[in-house]
Write a structure and sequence with these properties.
The complex is a heterodimer. By secondary structure, chain A is of the alpha+beta class. Chain A is built from 8 helices and 16 strands. Chain B contains 2 helices and 11 strands. The chains are: A alpha+beta, B mainly beta.
Chain lengths: 302, 233
């Protein structure tokens, strides 16, 4: 089992309440996965010149200041970059205009314990091992604002339980994916992608799906084409929930054994593994409620 | 003879599902009519599983997986939506869902009546063995898969793969069928079929024209192995 949740808010006033509305969805689904938890939040879209680099370390007393001072010394002023950062226990968001490849390499050399979890202009990713309810409190999910988010509570059935193995997985920029299920050919996908020069961070099956779909999108496929190819290439059971800076997208495999339920109103689209985690949402009694069909692409724009 | 109503309220906000179920598993066979109300189900799983009681039970809210599984005798109403496998392996009595049901509603049910007033998701009535099912809305893919006995009435549409590998169960559909499964076929409605649909709609208290239903049953071509068919694996 695992739990997945997603929420896309269609109206401006509700976007102030993204965190408040998603927290009960997320904590309810903690019952489906108590190993690890995580969530990707998307702030207001728009073309920010700055990239947001989300960093993770396992040590909650990590001396961020030293690291970030060094980063500033190295990068501030380069490419017109005005480096900013905010930290929250073992998580930091660094805002800068620098090339993600250069930034990643710099962190890897400076301190391998620091993991670059996500890169994007609108996306912040929080994830860790442990009780999802505690993770939700520690990273103050309730205070989040923005247009959409996707979250995951994990009960590992294949690879290890570590922070990098927890969901959401990210690839490229402003792309993330959460998964309930298990793939039977992740190593085949992985070998295929490694030939394209794509680097993996874990041995997890979801990472293969995430990098495969992001690779297709980067190669010029639209979402429809990328996912239609994914249906033929991913073997196994999956409910996949993806997010980009301006949409969320949901698909299930041909058998659709892994659960998903959608509730849509004029104000929001909410997705969860189980209806009970949507029951608190405003106006849910009048929502259009359905379970997505196998191999059908459901996509909602912000 | 049934005497005074014994009304009991159980609140899942204060009691565990196990405590509630242990209460429901007591011997109710005392000649009294029993009415039990369960409050704050909040999507919990396995509420009212294994009932064997001459009792009316109202669950006030949304229930999770397996609600009223293996039911005998009891008449259970869920005033909300339910998760996977509502009334799984029901033996007798009735289970009514006022909202929608997730996958595998009434799976492998042997007897009794299951009514879903809203939509049922995929695999509704999978491997049913004698239960009657009435769905007020539509059903998802692979409903009636390997259904062995019993009747399923679908007032809305049916998704792909309806009645795949069906045995002797019969499915009636009022709406659109988005594809039949292997060995399922459309058959003419007889007077008995119309009478059966009329009776089941009455029991379910749903208003639909019984004449509008189509009959889906087994073509029985999978009953015996046919070595002459070209097999490709």
């Amino acid at each position: 089992m695992c739990g997945i949740v997603g929420l896309l808010l269609k109206t401006e006033p509700l976007r102030e309440r993204l965190g408040e509305l998603m927290v009960p969805m997320f904590t309810c689904m903690a019952a489906r996965g108590s190993d690890s938890g995580g969530c990707a939040f998307f702030g207001e879209s728009g073309d920010s010149p700055w990239r947001r680099f989300n960093l993770y370390v396992s040590d909650r007393q990590y001396p961020w200041q030293t690291l970030l001072d060094d980063f500033k010394t190295e990068f501030d002023g380069k490419n017109g970059s005005d480096v900013r950062f905010q930290t929250l226990e073992n998580h930091a968001v660094l805002t800068a205009a620098n090339d993600p490849v250069v930034v990643r390499e710099w962190f890897e050399q400076r301190d391998p314990k620091v993991h670059l979890m996500s890169v994007g202009r609108n996306m912040d990713v929080y994830k860790d091992v442990g009780d999802p309810v505690e993770i939700c409190k520690r990273f103050r999910f309730a205070e989040a604002t923005g247009s959409h988010c996707v979250g995951h509570t994990r009960m590992a059935t294949e690879s290890a339980v570590t922070p990098v193995h927890s969901h959401p997985y990210t690839a490229g920029e402003d792309f993330c994916l959460v998964h309930n299920g298990s793939l039977s050919n992740p190593y085949m996908l992985r070998r295929r992608l490694e030939r394209e020069g794509i680097r993996f961070e874990t041995d997890n099956d979801t990472e293969a799906a995430c990098r495969f779909i992001e690779w297709r999108l980067r190669e010029g496929d639209n979402l429809q084409a990328a996912l239609t190819t994914a249906f033929t290439q991913l073997d196994g059971f999956y409910t996949l929930l993806m997010a980009t800076s301006n949409r969320i997208c949901l698909v299930r495999d041909a058998f659709a054994c892994k659960p998903a339920v959608v509730a849509e109103t004029d104000e929001y689209v909410a997705i969860s593994s189980e209806f009970r985690s949507l029951a608190h949402l405003p106006g849910v009694a009048q929502a259009e409620i359905f379970e997505p069909k196998p191999e059908e692409i459901y996509s909602w724009r912000v | 003879m049934a005497s005074v109503n014994q009304t009991v309220q159980l609140d899942l906000a204060n009691q565990s599902v196990r405590e509630v179920n242990q209460f429901l598993h007591q011997d109710f066979d005392d000649g009294n009519a029993h009415y039990i109300e369960i409050l704050h189900p909040d999507g919990n799983h396995s509420i009212g599983v294994g009932l064997d009681a001459d009792a009316d039970i109202d669950i006030r809210g949304h229930a999770g997986y397996y609600v009223a599984g293996m039911n005998r005798q009891a008449r259970v109403t869920i005033h909300g939506n339910v998760g996977w496998s509502v009334a799984e392996n029901i033996m007798s009595g009735s289970v009514r869902v006022k909202g929608n049901a997730s996958q595998c509603a009434a799976a492998s049910g042997h007897g009794g009546l299951v009514v879903i007033e809203g939509d049922a998701s995929s695999r509704c009535g999978i491997s049913m063995k004698g239960v009657d099912i009435v769905v007020g809305g539509s059903v998802g893919h692979l409903s009636g898969f390997m259904a062995q006995a019993g009747r399923m009435v679908i007032c809305g549409d049916a998704d792909a793969g309806l009645g795949d590998s069906i045995y002797e169960a019969v499915i009636y559909v009022a709406g659109k069928i988005h594809g039949l499964g292997a060995d399922a076929r459309k058959e003419p409605m007889s007077a008995e079929d119309v009478a059966a649909v009329t009776e089941l709609l009455e029991q379910a208290q749903l208003q639909h024209d019984p004449q509008k239903f189509k009959r889906i049953a087994s073509a029985r071509t999978l009953y015996h192995w046919n070595a002459d068919v070209e097999q490709e694996y």
